[in-house]
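Notes from the 1:1 (GR / supervisor)

We went over the backlog. Supervisor wanted to see one worked example end to end before approving the batch request, so GR pasted a single chain during the call. The sequence is below; no edits were made to it. Supervisor asked that the structure be written out right there so they could see what the output format looks like.
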Amino acid sequence: MTAVLADPDEAVADIPDGATVLIGGFGPAGQPIELIDALRRHGAGDLTVVNNNAGNGDTGLAALLATGNVRKIICSFPRQTDSWVFDGLYRSGKIELELVPQGNLAERMRAAGAGIGAFFCPTGVGTPLAEGKEQRTIDGRDYVLEYPIKGDFALIKAHRGDGVGNLVYRKTARNFGPVMAAAATTTVAQVAEVVPAGGLDPEAVVTPGIYVDRLVTA
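Structure output shown during the call:
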């Protein structure tokens, strides 16, 4: 059963040092800021964070990076005009970066949720991103072997959830939420509203409640 909580701090209180945390969001869109802030207050360290970006401005994910509790970030777009927190940490050697093309990032998490051991992908062939990886030619095209990205925890944002954890999203705020929910051992979803079980149109449910362990309104 999905636990419905009222406090973001309670929802992330058991995230340990060294955890891999998948955090939803495409830039600010769909970023679970209240859960990120709770994780920052919780103080777990040596974290590996997976996100499309590496933080914007000084809030949300950027604020979490600024605490120094993130050892490594796996993302597609680490540098933007407002990514000065990450930029400063990376240039001073205080954070590790694994750069992953955006499609590969989504597919590696989807593979984790689907139980796929690995897959071959053409993206990155002939670039530094393919160095050290197994390569194979299939039907005359070169491919690189990619492995799933699994999370100990996923922190995602949805629009509404019901009492058994089913989720619906609002437009582009969906982004990585569904694949992250399936790829993590424990998924925490921040929603604007929790409705009774049966209160969501089943045809509109994107993430089934079986993938969601905790709901928190924020």
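Supervisor's comment: The mean pLDDT is 96.
Batch request approved.
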